[in-house]
Amino acid sequence: MAVSDALIVGEGWISEHYFTTDSRKESFLAKVLERRKDWDAGVAEGNDTARSRFSEARGWLQSTLAALGESKDGLTELYERMREILGFAGGGLKVKRTGPVLRVSAPGLAEGAPLILIEADRVETVDDLLVKDSGTLLTPYPSTRRRSCSRSHGHYRRCSSPRTLPRSRS
Questions:
Q1: Residue 146 pLDDT more than 50?
Q2: 107-127: string of b/e by CB count within 10 Å (b at 16+)?
Q3: 3-state SS class at 70
């Protein structure tokens, strides 16, 4: 399997060997071949698949991506359409939005979401996207974290929000 810049193994949490081996068992290639076989079988049965939806929308995606330019215009529509193409819109899935973060889960799951989609602005490189607090989210994320306060002589003298004073340590 040819090495590609499309996948970047970061932080070492997945073996690079998994992506680059030609093995047809327990490798990325094996999963790709398995998924492709499932998609082809689905189309043969007359079902709609992510691949068939993506193929149908290819022209629209190309023109939309080319027209994005420096403006955020069109990103919201692009994200909505991509969720439809990939099968994350409708189909009985539960979607909960918090700012630019969408938590997607199946009905009946008690906790968490097996998939989180994040709507981000355009960036030049993947590294630009991963810079913390750089304003790359499409809309601000409403933070519920407590903010830290600076301490001077045992008293809190400056807090980012008066409602978020930390508890005193006794």
A1: yes
A2: eeeeeebeeebebebeeeeee
A3: coil
